[in-house]
């Protein structure tokens, strides 16, 4: 029997690329997303080895019921991003912070808890944080706090939930719909600026992150790791 992987937030961007890589590698994939239309399009793309559930990952009761219905699960990947956009700290309402906490941190924790009763002991949980966790980019205080929190729980859970493996991928700037809050021309200019500041000389693609997630699922001797996939952005460019 092929392994069963649940990808939460798998209807676009990194989640969809991950689901595609897993399907192409012979696994069965369950894609979870809020938008039924996007879910249907994702399943059409992924083919017969994928199925889906249209539900809100923030609803832990619904997530628990879904996992109970699925039965034994080999791996869980949580790619939910929370709100997009950047907000200056001085004018940032606390509701904006709460939206990020609920939309990402609480969701990642809730999905992991919902999966535990059916997750195989030799399985894994992979979270997706972001490079903002260790960056200093103005306007990303809420993003930085939430992504750093996601990364902080990885080693704790890797020990507490052993032998289940717990890891995270921390992407840099990736060309996904998260950036759609910017007009197309501004987005292109922003990407160009980020690309010029990395040794890799480009922004990332969802497939780059999917490849890293695939590694963390496949490698049974890797746990408690936050794997950076940022084109070397944190290194800077040496002239």
UniProtKB/TrEMBL annotation:
Which SUPFAM superfamilies does this UniProt record tie to the protein? Answer: NAD(P)-binding Rossmann-fold domains (SSF51735)
Give the matching InterPro entries.
Answer: NAD(P)-bd_dom_sf, SDR_DHRS6-like, SDR_fam
GO MF annotation: an example: oxidoreductase activity
Q: Has the keyword Oxidoreductase been applied to this entry? A: yes
- Keyword terms of this UniProt record: Oxidoreductase
Q: One matching Pfam family, short form?
A: adh_short_C2
| Family note | Belongs to the short-chain dehydrogenases/reductases (SDR) family.
| PANTHER family (UniProt xref) | DIHYDROANTICAPSIN 7-DEHYDROGENASE
Q: Under what name is this protein listed? A: NAD(P)-dependent dehydrogenase (Short-subunit alcohol dehydrogenase family)
